[in-house]
Specification:
alpha+beta, eight-stranded antiparallel β-sheet, two-stranded antiparallel ribbon, 3 helices, 32% helix
């Protein structure tokens, strides 16, 4: 309420406004106390009420300085805009890619097949060459042995005093033969077997010289096709005292005395 001051003779008096004025004033006061309409805040932004509107309502506006955006304890992450998927251009590139893959596989298959065939042919040729080399080595070894034997034979027959003794089987149906060459000046001898039967590994052919019914061993031998074998020992008797040469089948280690049955025999003849 509003009080008015009046000077009187008694002193100062105070009087209130009329009832109608009080009612109007009260109405304005109540309007001031009414709840103001609240504006919704979007995205943390404060919207200040227009001073002009507040003046129209007849109320005092207290301006406050507020930040446009409140401080936050948690920083907001900027959301990346989600772009819509870009439509893919469908062209003939996919078909060309598949054709390239198919052609590449076909090319690799052809190259692999020809490589496999070529490697197989090369391996076959290598095997044939190895066989040829092995055969040539065998032939070369045989030739070397032949030349060596015949060189020895030639050297042997270059000796001046050589006696040849031919031995035949005591069995008329057996075609086994042997030849013995004795060089008395060099004290060397050779023996050659032909058509003899194969013996067990623990047996061999033992050569004997006979002089006045006494037999003397010249060693045990195993025939080796038509090759000439060197005598391991030579007769110590003069050739004029040798009557004959005989061959018996004995142990491969040799026997001190010959068996009764001879396998091959030959008469020793000295040429004058």
């Amino acid at each position: 309420p509003t009080f008015s001051e009046t000077q009187t003779g008694i002193g100062k008096t105070f009087a209130t406004e009329s009832a109608e004025d009080l009612k109007a004033d009260t109405k304005q006061t109540l309007n001031f106390l009414k709840t103001k309409p609240v504006t919704k805040i979007t995205h943390g932004e404060f919207i200040n009420t227009s001073i002009t509107e507040e003046k129209k309502r007849g109320s005092t506006v207290v301006e406050s300085i507020l930040p446009e955006q409140p401080q936050s304890l948690f920083p907001q992450q900027q959301q990346q805009p989600v772009l819509p998927p870009q439509p893919q251009d469908k062209s003939t590139g996919g078909l060309a890619g598949w054709l390239a893959v198919i052609l590449s596989l076909l090319l690799f298959t052809i190259v692999g097949y020809y490589t496999y065939v070529s490697v197989g042919e090369v391996n076959d040729k290598i095997v044939e060459l190895e066989r040829s080399i092995t055969s040539m080595k065998s032939d070369l070894t045989t030739s070397n042995n032949f030349v060596s034997n015949y060189n020895s034979l030639i050297e042997f027959f270059n000796n001046k005093d050589v006696v040849v003794v031919n031995l035949t089987s005591v069995n008329a149906n057996d075609k086994a033969t042997a030849r013995i060459f004795l060089a008395f000046d060099q004290k060397e001898g050779l023996i050659q077997f032909k058509n003899t039967r194969a013996l067990p590994p623990n047996q061999g052919y033992q050569v004997w010289i006979v002089s006045k019914n006494q037999s003397y061993s010249l060693g045990v031998y195993t025939p080796n096709s038509n090759e000439y074998l060197r005598l391991s020992s030579f007769p110590f008797l003069p050739k004029e005292q040798i009557d004959k040469i005989r061959i018996t089948i004995e142990s491969n280690t040799g026997s001190p005395t010959p068996s009764i049955d001879s396998y091959l025999e030959g008469t020793f003849v000295v040429r004058k």
